[in-house]
Design a protein that fits this description.
The protein is about 20% helix and about 45% strand. By secondary structure, the protein is of the alpha+beta class.
């Protein structure tokens, strides 16, 4: 399945940006041996999402996840530190959702924008690339 023109244009704009060389920007990419729809769904379903969100040493419960997958919808996660039960709530707002191609969201506290692009590699694999940007060249992630 090909990306929509909207997603293709978005990724092309990201590719023209000075990612990797500018302060305040970070890109990470991973290839999954699964179809794009399945990888996208893993991010949208709290029962699956909790298996990969957060750093080692933290736990996220499905009850600590709110995902409203539409522009303006909430994306909220509470991670709990395993050793002392300290809670770290994270609150985001979806800027765009194009199923199964794109999720774009903004951190409500820091203002960091993130975009997660799912690319069908055509052989049952999916490339997921996340782009984080503060929008300020003098900021650090």
């Amino acid at each position: 399945m090909a990306n929509s023109a909207t997603t293709d244009e978005y990724v092309a704009a990201l590719d023209r940006s000075p990612r990797g060389s500018a302060l305040g920007e970070l890109t990470a990419t991973r290839v999954f041996n699964a179809p794009r729809e399945m990888v996208f769904r893993a991010f949208m379903e709290p029962e699956q999402f909790v298996n990969f969100w957060g750093p080692a040493g933290t736990t996220v419960s499905p009850s600590g996840v709110t995902i409203e997958p539409w522009a303006g919808g909430r994306f909220e996660v509470t991670a709990v530190v395993d050793t002392d039960a300290t809670e770290f709530p994270m609150k985001y707002v979806f800027l765009a959702v194009v199923e199964p191609e794109l999720l774009s969201y903004r951190d409500s506290v820091s203002g960091i924008d993130s975009s997660l692009v799912f690319t069908d590699l055509g052989d049952g694999r999916t490339r997921a690339s996340v782009f984080h940007s503060t929008g300020r060249a003098d900021a650090h992630l």
